[in-house]
Each structure stands twice: as structure tokens, then as C-alpha cells.
Amino acid sequence: MRKSTFAHVKKLLLISTVLVLTACASSPQPSSQGNNIEAQPSRLESINNSPPEKPLPRQMIENLFLADILAFRGQHQQAAELTMETAKAFNEPSLAEESMWHLQQSGSDLKPALSYWASWDNSSDAYLVSNARYELSKQNFGETLRYASQIKEPSLANPFFQSVGATAMRWPADNQDRFVEVLKAVQAARPDLSAVTIAIALTHFYRFPEQSIELMEQLLTEFPNDEAVVANTAGLMAEVGDIDKALAVLDKFLEQHQSVDIQTQRLKTEYFDNRREPNFRPLLDTPDITVAWLVETANWLTAQGFFTQATEFSAHLAKRPALLERAALIDAEILIAQGNQGAALGLLMQIKQPEHVTVAAESFARMELSSDNLTVIEQWYDERRIENPSYSEQWIQLELRDLCGREEMAVCRARAASILETNPHSFSALEVLSEILTRSGQQTQLEQYYEQFLSYNPDAHLIRNNLAYGWISREVRLDEAEQQLQIALSAEPENPAYLDSLGWLYYLQGNLTLAYEYVSRASQLVDHPEILAHLITILEAMSNQAQADEVRSFARERFPTITWSTER
To answer: Which whole-number Å values give the CA distances from 479 to 296, 500, 568, in the listed order?
Structure first.
């Protein structure tokens, strides 16, 4: 089984605890405040929430310092391993959480590290949050909720339920109903998690708007001071056009609380009712405004075409020297919206801070650029990677995603090959080449890239599996394929993709007993159509038609959009 390598790192994705629905919005919008599900953990905040009774151990400090040096050099895999070992040695889950971030930067699969973490700590909130993040990134929503429901701190658990609930709004009806049953079971076990009820209301909203609003109103009586509950209740009311009722909910909250987010939602709700430009300027004097709020509000104003007010927000940010680049990003967005891409490109070329490069890349992706400008951007990315090598892999992903998204496949392929030549550890460049060469049927050339990558990265077992499966698919070099898969499985013995690949190799060699052993193990670990198809074929070859039909029946129910062979 060839496992897809096209999984983008989303380190900076913010998933808020407050979903702001507007009367004309088609999907929930995040507020400026809330829990950051994907952000890198803060080492100092994690370890030193309260003043320590004694200094941190010297060995811990030395290890973390060395891990930072490794990360700066771009050696994120080694930084992750050192940080994880330090976490285990000092029983500090927050450091294990930081190890996950290093692994994300390296492009490695987090699952083996999470399994290792579980061997010495499988109950801390840090462990559970990291697993929930991982499963959410893979869109394994059932597993996401399983971990989230075990998180003891409600403020850490709630964002996951709300995030999945917002996603479930777009699911087919049958899937929604099954999901709501799962949520109701969690709701009974964890009444302290208000977002579980929010998720139920969001999931059923487009089919049962009245019942969803009624559910939120009941929740509001129980959690009248919960901003997420207030925001979602008002948001759903506004979505069905009941603006007055939505405003009443927001006003009642604001009578007793100072909240920039709720005031902001009130202004936006009024705008979608009367279409008059809302005046956010008085909120600039509010003591508790955040940089995130300034940025999000400026971007919202830009999207609605209120450029003068958006420019004022940018100027407010620019008062602080550390935020000059952030202000420049907003100014660039305003210029793009006004059609002045040349001036916008000039501003974006000046961006250097790592956290802003990602935002600049998103702006590039929305611009119509000439070939000359694409070359200029390539040079800009090269300079940024030299200045900040620890972010190299993340920025390679962004650049290649932009090029491929422009349908410039020849340019994208050439650029990925060039990057891989100068940076033979770039998983992102290899995965782009993999997608392009697979699509064009150039399997032999792809395998050459795989072998070259493995010579520099012998621990890249996902690539080892894909190389072996390519040989298996063409029924060549089968002995070498078996050797490669045995190496991969010795490192990750429960990886279903590797198990399936080896099982299918044994099937082709006529060893049905071993074929069934490995593929059936893979099918027990994950529901995947290719694994199930292999299992059906093997069972039929073993003349076990009854079990083959049973697996086929399950596969049809699990994957109804796929055409499965008819029972014999």
C-alpha cells in the first residue's frame, strides 16, 4: 500500500473557541481570541506556570539548549528525539509536546513518537491534546473526540469539539446523525464541556435550525457567562435572519461583561443586517485588544472593502516597531484588494520574520504573477531559508504548494528538483515530485528520487515503503522490496501501510498464509479501501469465499462511493 506523503504542516492554524456566525456567512468564522490548537507550546509557560521551588535541573537546560541548536541547523528530527528523551527523563509532558512540534517541522509522521510518549505517559493533558491534534490533522474525527473527551481541563478540550462540530455542518445527513450520537454519549459523561452541546447544535443546524437554536438557548441558561456559548447562540440566530434576537443576546452579555470579541460580533451582525460600514475605531482604545484581534478585524474590513478603516488598524499596529511587518502584511492585502499588485509585491518582498513569511506566502498565492515575478519570489524564499534554516521545510511546502496551485507543473517540478538537490533532506520537495511523477506515470524516475532520498535519510521509512510498493506494483526487485519493508517494519511494526505492502508482496509470490497474516493485521489497524481490496483478493485465493464476502459487505458499507467486485 503506497501511503500518501502530501500532508501539509499547519503549525500556525488557529482554531478558536468562539465561532462567530453572521447573517450572510455560509460557515462559522473564528474570533480573535481562543485556544490555539496548533501552535508550538511555550516551554517557559508550560514548565513555569508558577515560580519553581528550585532551579531547573542543569541537564534539562543543557539538553534543551542543544535541541534549540539542532533545530536552528534544520535538524528537527534529532531535536525532537533529544527533547522527547529529556521529557521522559524528567517526567515533563510539556517537553514531549514540544518534541511534537520539532517533528512537524521535519515532516515526519508523529504517530511513532506519540506511541513512544504513551509508553511513559498516556494520561496527561499534554499527551491527550497532542493526540487529539494529530487525529484532527488527519481528519480522524472519531479518534479526535476520543482523546479530547479525556482531557481534564475544559478550556483545552472544548476547542476540539467545536472544531469538529463546525466541520460536521457540511457532512451527509447519515454521518451527522451518527456523529451526534457519539457527542451525546460524551455529553452525558462530561457535562462540564459546553462545546459538546455547541458541536451538536452546529452539526444539525442546516437541517434542523430551530432545534439547534433552541438547544443553544438552553445551553445559554446554563453557561450565561461563556463567550463561546453567547457567540454561537447569537451567530445561529443571525444565520436564520433573527437579527434582533441575536443582538439582544449579545447586548445582555455586554451589560455585565467587557468583551472585545462580543462587541466585534455585534458590529458585524449589525452590518450584515443594514449593510452600513461598522465603526470599530472606538474599540481601539479598549485595554484588552490583542494583536490577533487587530489583524483579524483589519482583514475583515479589507474583505468588505472598507479600506480607510483597515488602513487605520494597520497604522495602529505599526506604532509598535515589533509589529511593523505585521502592519505591512495588512497594507499588502489592501493593495491586492485594490488591484495594485506591483506595490503589494514590493511590500511582501521586505518580509523577513519567520512567523510573517507564512502569511506573506498566502498573499503570494492569491496574486496573479508573471514568470519574472515567480523567479523573484523563488529568490526571496531562498534568502529566507538561508536566514532561518529551522523554518526551511515549512517554507518549501508553502512555495511549492503555491507553484503547483498555479497549474505551473513544469515550473513546480523543476523547482522541487532544484530544492532537493541543494537540500537532500527536504521531505516536502520529495512529496511534490512524488505527486507529479506518479501522475505522469514516471515511476522509474520517482524510484530514483526515493533511493537518493533514503541514502541521506535512512530513517524515512514512509519513503522506504513507497519505494518497495512501487517495485511490488511492477513486480520487479521483489527480494529488495521485502528487505526494505522488513527494515521499515522493524522500526514501526504496527504501521498498516507497511504491513499491507509486505502482505501483498507475499500474495504475488504465492505465499497466501503470510499474505493473509500481514494484510489482515493491517485491516485490523485501519479501515482503508486498498487494504480491504487486498484482503478480499487473498481470501478468495485461499478459497475462503464466505469471509471474503463478509469483508466485501463491510467494505461496501464503509466506502459506499467505491465500486466493489461482485460476490462469487
So the answer is: 56, 16, 33
